[in-house]
Amino acid sequence: MKRFSADGSVGFPHVRVGHRQALYQTPRSSRRLGAFFYGFFMYAEINQALESLRRNGALPCTEWPKGAPVTPRDLGLVERRGEWVRVDQVEELDLVYLRRNAEGRSLEVEIEFFPVVGSTNRILVERAGSEELSNLLLTCDYQHAGRGRRGRNWISPYARNLAFSFAHRSEKDLHELGGLSCVVGLAITDALADLGLSNTNVKWPNDVWIEGNKLAGVLVELINSGAGTQVVIGVGLNVALTDAERMQIDQPVIDLVSCGIKRARNDLLIDVVGKLTSYLEHFENKGFAPFIGAFNAVHALHQKQVSVHLAGKNQDPTTLGRVVGLGASGQLLVETIDGIIELLGGEVSLRPAPVDH
Q1: Which pTM does this prediction carry?
Q2: For the BPL/LPL catalytic domain, which residue ranges apply (predicted)?
Q3: Active site residue 66
């Protein structure tokens, strides 16, 4: 049995496996932190302008921060008589409501919210390098530089999808954290099932699909602080996309509204986070093994023929095989003509095999 690690080499992985996009070591350089905080305060000016618009119903065009990386039109604003106004109705997240909702469900979660950020994952990863984070939810209405797996951008219109990151402190060693992104995917499908959406599937290692269309994506990043492992879990969930926005995305996508789910974003966020904390607690207590059968049962590609694209220079670029399940560390088991191979995520792309006619 061969094991293909994130860089395509053969061997047993200990760091970049499965969902792990990067393992961050501390401490961080002062130059990198300085650049991070400069970017953070740059977005703070944008958020102050948005707060002024909310209070007054309009914002003079001259008051938009000069040189800002986000334009008013990026946020759905329209210029009228020298002012920026919002004409389309959107449901912005409400921090007071979110905290009250979480407390009412007995969720021990700290919640932070910024209308506009660069990347929620990046903020928490940087903070985890200098402080201990646990049960911290960071969310926003708009990500300017949202990240997906393998460095892809995540397209999300202002206040019409969900984008959040959750910081979790794990007592497990690194080698025990395989399959964590699969657990997160299962938590999302469970939350959506409670809302009546029963036809969701997970797609290894970190997507949620409906009939081959992507509904949600997961990005898990690990930070080794020397005294344990801090985990930052990023989730992007399509709630309402326009046709124009769908055209910008390089794969078939779907959203909740088109599926008949019209749950308020403020409630939907706590729905998902509630399931996530429950699944993480179970994972910490029991490990990944109890989740394997559940994942196989809803895996969109289980027992299907697939095309595997490996990034390693020493491997054939494409391998065909049949998905037979998950291993104990979350690796995907694929039966090929040369035997069973184990896929560990990273620079591995998995798609349904082309059908011959």
Answers
A1: 0.87
A2: 102-284
A3: no
**In CATH, what number does 2-14+301-352 get?**
2.30.30.100
Is 150 marked active-site? Answer: no
3-class SS of residue 304: coil
Question: 99, 147, 149, 169: which is the annotated catalytic residue?
Answer: 149
**E strand map for the chain:** 2-4, 20-25, 59-60, 77-80, 83-86, 110-117, 136-143, 162-170, 201-203, 207-210, 213-224, 229-237, 305-310, 318-326, 332-336, 339-343, 348-352
Q: Is 127 a catalytic residue?
A: no
Catalytic residue among 147, 214, 265, 275: 214
Mean pLDDT across the stretch 147-176?
80
Res. 147 pLDDT band, cuts 50 70 90? low
Return d(Cα 252, Cα 320) in angstroms, integer: 22
Residue boundaries of the structural domains of the chain: 2-14+301-352, 20-29+91-298, 43-86
Quick one: pLDDT at residue 226?
Answer: 65
Average pLDDT along the chain: 85
State the pLDDT confidence band at 356, using cuts at 50, 70 and 90: low
CA–CA distance, 48 with 294 (Å, rounded to integer): 45
What is the model's pLDDT at position 152?
Answer: 55
Fold for domain 20-29+91-298?
BirA Bifunctional Protein; domain 2 (3.30.930)
Spatial distance between the Cα atoms of 132 and 111, rounded to a whole number of angstroms = 15
